[in-house]
Amino acid sequence: MTGSGLAAPAAGAARSPGTWGGLSPTARTTLLRAGSIALVLAVWEVGGRIPVALTFPSFTETAAAFGGMLVDGTFLRAYSETIGPLLVGVTLTAIGGVAAGVAMGLSPKAEWLGVPVFVILQAAPSAAIIPLITFIYGIDFTAKVFAVVLLSTPVIVLNSYRGIRNTPISLVEMSQAFLASRWQRIWKVILPAASGLIFAGLRLGLAQGFTGAVLAELLITPTGVGDLITFYRSQAEYDHMYAAILSIILVASVTITLLARLEQRIFRPELRTP
Amino acid sequence: MTDAAVATDPATATDPAVRVVGLTKDFPGGTRALEGVTFDVPAGELTSLIGPSGCGKTTTLKIVAGLIPATSGEVIVKGRPVTGPGPERAFVFQDFALLPWATVLRNVAFGLELRGVPKAEREATAREYIGKANLGGFEHHYPHQLSGGMRQRVGLARALAVDADILLMDEPFASVDEQIRRAFQEDLLRLLSEERKTVLFVTHSIEEAVYVSDQIVILTRGPGRVSNAVQPQIARDGTPDEIRRNQGYLDAVEEIWGQLRSYVEEDMRAPEGADR
């Protein structure tokens, strides 16, 4: 059960009926996913109890710390500090980055000018650059927004650019043959065709944005969730430290899933029907 | 174009719907795809372009569609030189070119949507052609839920819905399996006799070309030139099987095969396909 749980996370891959005792494919997928998560948590629990290291708490200890921090408002305070720069940064990047990527996909001049910049930016060691931000933007809100933008921009821009570039040529020809104007071609054909890669870029950009926000809090000024991690590590309260890390993973994955749903709703209705 | 030519009614029965005159096409890098391709497409008839792969059939069709420019020569549609796509021409694509995120209804209505026809009106027109293309009941399906044959019916319905006089079809049945292909050819002939369209049809199947065409233009390769135009003399009043056993049909297939044979043999000797 748990072994196959790891092997089959792809929804809809196993459509052959009857093998799993009358379970619907959706129920089967849910069961497999739950099994896969349970397996990881079980390994974590065992590893924490051996213990692998003194600094490695078990899952139950971490979960208890997590619950405590949730109830006493620690998470609420921390995230209300982190969310500001994250939201502002990701919003700026989403608008500017998608626009820049789309422009680069549509115009050879913008492509020539832009692509090398973002490829270099993507390859650059961001964690090393972030402390340098303080020289220009100080240690405030702006510096953290900048960190978020720095990490999330390249993937959003480059994915949007690739999405536009990968529009099937026959769809573009079709729109021309049926007399689409330039704007109709972009709006009704190219953008929907690119939406998959654009939204994949936004999801990855959001994940990068989380990393940027937490890195800024670890490296620039200790506030928010980054501060939680630093603080509990210095106190040797590793269960609380891991709970803080776990919370970042949870918040990031929930946000990313919501974004994927939004994409399907807006651009790809056909993906919802079986 | 002289004044006298403009003054004559472009829709007279004797004027061809499309004249292709001295078409030459060089691709970037210096490959010459077409050289001096000249032929007429008579109004209300079906003309096929056939030839070995790489002879520029599809290139010719796309130049007629206005999708790519010719290096020299011109295409005259109803008395006017082609400078780009126009409302009197509609295209049916080999790979269907359907919007995967749109339903059958929206795909069929898409040409009208781009022309700004109000939603209710364009959907009514689309439903009419969905019915004629035997797609009734699939209005709200998405392309990935349809078979290849049904997808191409959507492509055909979309081209018919914009009510263009000239249909340009680029190997429309190439991605469809043989049984469906035959049924589709029947449907095409029936639809065309109802709709009175002029058709320029690209195919690599000799049997298909002879079966559906009034005129077959044979292109040769390297660069593409018109080698011959054949008008098969086939009585169209029989059943499909009778037509396929008709002497005119068999003679035309044999004549075209005789002309294309040398190219096929050349391809068989070559270790790899020249351009596929």
List the helices and strands and how they pair.
The complex is a heterodimer of chains A (274) and B (276).
Chain A: H1 2-7, H2 25-49, H3 59-71, H4 74-106, H5 108-123, H6 126-137, H7 141-165, H8 169-177, H9 182-219, H10 224-234, H11 238-266
Chain B: H1 3-7, E1 16-26, E2 32-42, E3 46-50, H2 57-65, E4 72-77, E5 80-81, E6 89-92, H3 104-114, H4 119-132, H5 148-161, E7 166-170, H6 178-195, E8 198-202, H7 206-212, E9 215-220, E10 225-230, H8 240-245, H9 247-269
Parallel strand pairs in B: 3-8, 3-9, 6-7, 7-8
Antiparallel strand pairs in B: 1-2, 1-4, 4-5, 9-10
Helix pairs in contact in B: 3-4, 3-5, 4-5, 7-9
Description:
The complex is a heterodimer of chains A (274) and B (276). Chain A contains eleven helices and no strands. With 274 residues, chain A is mainly α. In chain A, helix 4 packs across helix 7 (141-165). Chain B has a domain at 3-88 and 164-269: Rossmann fold (3-Layer(aba) Sandwich), CATH 3.40.50.300. Chain B contains nine helices and ten strands. A six-stranded mixed sheet of chain B has the order 6-7-8-3-9-10, with helices on both faces. At the A-B interface, helix 8 and helix 9 of A face strand 6 and helix 3 of B.
Supply database-style keywords.
heterodimer; A: 274 residues; mainly alpha; MetI-like fold; 2 domains; 0% strand; B: 276 residues; alpha/beta; Rossmann fold; 6-stranded mixed sheet; 9 helices; 39% helix; disordered N terminus
Fraction of residues in H or I helices of chain B: 25-40%
Radius of gyration of chain B: 19 Å
* Number of separate structural domains of chain A: 2
- Structural class call of chain B reads alpha/beta
